[in-house]
């Protein structure tokens, strides 16, 4: 007899926290403030402190964080952004939705993160940024990526969707470069109850 295994069962995962959630939901319901507000401000303050960054800005999803992180630089039309070939589709969608071209770089077979030794050969005059994707709770090898970014005057936008709390030489993911984008989707290593 075959049994199905649920991909994710949030009711089981969250069961130990139901009472606490209900108390917090009740407070929110009574206040009538469902979007932004004090809870988001408090989260932004605590998360920026946790990651060691100057600011944290809450948005609707990790995809939105990546899109906004890219758009803030206002790269010229036709620009290219180097990205890991083995990333979740949201990373590529963020580049394409922002009007740029993703240039894929294969991973290091030992870490599954972008192989920094293969990045330089992909850089050309159209290249404006690198998006290293920290996978499976492990930061990319950032030192050579940072050196390349300085050498070619490129921006770095960290995709930290799977790297909450990951460290690289004493610095947390999201604090290593220009911008760090996180996802708090329920299946992430630090997930919310929905998109976040």
Task: Set down the secondary structure blueprint.
Elements: H1 10-14, H2 18-31, H3 37-51, H4 62-71, E1 80-84, H5 89-97, E2 101-105, E3 127-131, H6 142-152, E4 155-159, E5 167-168, E6 171-172, E7 179-181
Parallel strand pairs: 1-2, 1-3, 3-4, 4-7
Antiparallel strand pairs: 5-6
Description of the molecule:
By secondary structure, this protein is α/β, with parallel strands linked by helices. It is about 35% helix and about 15% strand. The chain has six helices and seven strands; from the N terminus they run ααααβαββαββββ. A five-stranded parallel sheet has the order 2-1-3-4-7, with helices on both faces. The longest helix has 15 residues, at about 35-50.
Q: How is this structure best summarized?
A:
The protein has 196 residues and is an alpha/beta fold.
List keywords for this structure.
196 residues, alpha/beta, five-stranded parallel β-sheet, 6 helices
The description of the largest β-sheet is: 5 strands, parallel
Q: What assembly state would you assign to the polypeptide chains in this entry? A: single chain
Find the count of extended strands (DSSP E, 2+ residues).
7
User: What is the terminal-to-terminal distance?
Assistant: 38 Å
Low-confidence spans = none
What fraction, in percent, of the residue positions are helical? 25-40%
Give the spatial strand order of the biggest sheet: 2-1-3-4-7
Strand-residue fraction? 5-15%
Whole-number radius of gyration? Answer: 18 Å
Class by helix and strand content?
Answer: alpha/beta
Order of helices and strands: HHHHEHEEHEEEE
Tally of DSSP helical segments: 6
Approximate shape: globular
Give the overall pLDDT as a whole number: 92
């Amino acid at each position: 007899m075959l049994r199905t295994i649920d991909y994710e069962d949030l009711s089981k995962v969250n069961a130990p926290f139901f009472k606490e959630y209900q108390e917090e939901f009740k407070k929110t319901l009574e206040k009538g403030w469902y979007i932004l507000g004090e809870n988001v401000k408090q989260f932004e303050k605590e998360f920026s402190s946790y990651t060691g960054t100057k600011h944290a800005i809450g948005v609707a999803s990790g995809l939105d964080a990546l899109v906004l992180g890219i758009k803030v630089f206002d790269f010229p039309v036709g620009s290219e952004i180097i990205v890991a070939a083995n990333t979740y589709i949201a990373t590529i969608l963020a580049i394409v939705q922002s009007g740029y071209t993703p240039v894929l770089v294969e991973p290091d077979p030992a870490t599954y993160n972008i192989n920094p030794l293969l990045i330089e050969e992909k850089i050309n005059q159209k290249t404006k940024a690198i998006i290293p994707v920290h996978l499976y709770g492990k930061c990319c090898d950032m030192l050579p990526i940072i050196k390349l970014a300085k050498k070619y005057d490129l921006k770095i936008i960290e995709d930290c969707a799977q790297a909450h709390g990951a460290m690289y030489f004493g610095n947390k993911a999201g604090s290593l470069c220009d911008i760090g984008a996180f996802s708090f989707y329920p299946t992430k290593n630090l997930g919310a109850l929905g998109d976040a």
